[in-house]
Specification:
With 452 residues, the protein is mainly α. Helix content is 77%, strand content 0%. It starts with 11 loop residues before the first helix and ends in a 10-residue tail after the last helix.
Length: 452
């Protein structure tokens, strides 16, 4: 047997896993995501419908893709994810804009391909890297790998957010060109696809990265299976992994706590720009706030690794819950400018949640069903986000009726702001209620030996 690698970063698949995560997630259109669709000519309702298509695709494909990764190979699913990313961005980069009907349906296909790519990558990348670490190094180093991966991914996110927003602004590019003495003229038309072209370049690099990966043999991987055999094996894997998840209280608890924490934070993050407006933050620095949040990715993973190595999961979940509650309480006050601090505290907990879920799930899961179980993680988180989104929409509708019935009638913008501020305390009550119920049911299982 070969000697274990002295460092986890000497293992090729581990290095390629980090590169893949950085490239796959560093999308230069993120800072202008919603307005980019609208500037292409779509309506706000069409944009909302496209988001529904994207989320539904992920939910439908998440677990089956993980099972396929466990049966036909994790590298094969990652190559598929890279290929789908190239296709989805290529559609966006070269679709003509003169036919709005065609444009919309091309974007529907774009969102389906994007959702399939997310589902194909989810679970397979971690499973391949973790199994490579087990085979060629020490699985106890997984925390170090996650810490380094998050730091590099945060760096990529900062670059993508900053550069993507800058190259989309024709006025900024025009001033830069004049300052450098370059005889170019920039308009909205000429900058519209620049973030997409850059993302297409990273998509090609993502695909090339997956092609360099090597499969790690496992007991469940089928060599050159026929289509019917691989699909049948994948379905059996989904059933077996699902039964294992629901029969393993520790894992089920971890996924449910992750669902609660992630859904609450992601719902508030979705409304972040509205919150920033209310606390009087100029729109010009919204992108800088996003980049500032990404900087937490350099600090929080190190803290998470030390906590996971020295404290029990129960302690870590309670600590994270306390930080989330402090963030929600502070945001509910909507302090002008100072309200940035609780918002950053709340949003930074996404790094803790992501680290803990990956760290403990990989420890608890066997190699032959690792990608499938990690896909269940994605399924739980997306279902949680969709569920709280529906509840939040109903809450906003109810609160809005109360403000609309006031006399004299309030201006529309004021109604929106009042409804949003009134909705924030509800997150505290919802989070506390669900947290207490989960602790009552799973407290004993989170302290079981072997997971402290």
């Amino acid at each position: 047997m070969d000697q274990p690698a002295s460092s986890p970063f000497n293992i090729p698949n581990v290095r390629l896993f980090i590169i893949f995560r950085v490239l796959f997630n560093a999308r230069f259109y993120y800072p202008v995501f919603s307005i980019l669709f609208l500037d292409f000519g779509l309506t706000l309702s069409q944009f909302a419908l496209l988001n529904v298509v994207w989320a539904a695709t992920i939910v439908l494909c998440e677990v089956p893709s993980g099972a396929l990764a466990d049966t036909i190979g994790r590298r094969n699913l990652l190559v598929l994810a890279g290929t789908l990313m190239v296709l989805e961005i290529s559609l966006w980069a070269f679709v003509p804009r003169d036919n709005l009907t065609l444009l919309f349906w091309v974007f529907v296909l774009n969102r389906i391909l994007s959702g399939m790519a997310e589902a194909a990558a989810s679970g397979a990348d971690e499973a391949l890297a973790y199994d490579s670490l087990q085979r060629e190094g020490d699985s106890q180093d997984w925390g170090r790998v996650l810490e380094r991966q998050t730091q590099w991914q945060s760096a990529g996110f900062v670059i993508a957010m900053t550069l993507g927003g800058a190259i989309y602004d024709p006025q900024l590019l025009q001033k830069t060109a004049e300052l450098l003495g370059i005889g170019l003229t920039f308009t909205r038309e000429s900058t519209l696809r620049l973030p997409i072209y850059l993302t297409l370049a990273t998509a090609v690099l993502t695909l090339l990265t997956t092609l360099r990966m090597r499969e790690v043999p496992s007991n469940s991987t089928i060599d050159n299976p026929a289509a019917g055999q691989s699909i049948g094996a994948a379905l059996r894997m989904v059933w077996q992994a699902g039964c294992w998840v629901f029969r393993t209280p520790f894992v089920l608890a971890l996924l449910l706590f992750g669902l609660l924490y992630d859904s609450v934070i992601r719902m508030v993050v979705t409304m972040a720009s509205q919150y920033y407006r209310i606390i009087e933050i100029p729109e010009a620095i919204f992108g800088l706030l996003g980049s500032s949040l990404a900087l937490f990715g350099f600090v929080v993973p190190g803290l998470a690794r030390r906590l996971s190595e020295s404290r029990s999961l129960l302690f870590n979940l309670q600590l994270t819950a306390g930080a989330i509650l402090l963030g929600l309480l502070g945001m509910s006050q909507a302090w002008p400018w100072l309200g940035i601090l609780p918002a950053l505290l709340l949003f930074s907990n996404m790094y803790l949640i992501g680290f803990f879920l990956s760290y403990y799930l990989n420890r608890a899961t066997s190699s032959e069903q690792r990608a499938t179980v990690l896909s269940f993680k994605g399924l739980f988180l997306n279902l949680g986000y969709g569920g709280i989104g529906l509840l939040y929409a109903l809450l906003l509708a109810s609160l809005r009726r109360g403000f609309e019935n006031l006399q004299p009638p309030l201006a529309e913008e004021l109604v929106k702001n009042l409804v949003f501020v009134a909705s924030l305390p509800w997150f505290i009550g919802y989070f506390l209620l669900c947290l207490v119920l989960l602790l009552l049911v799973f407290h004993r299982h989170l302290k079981q030996p072997g997971f402290d």
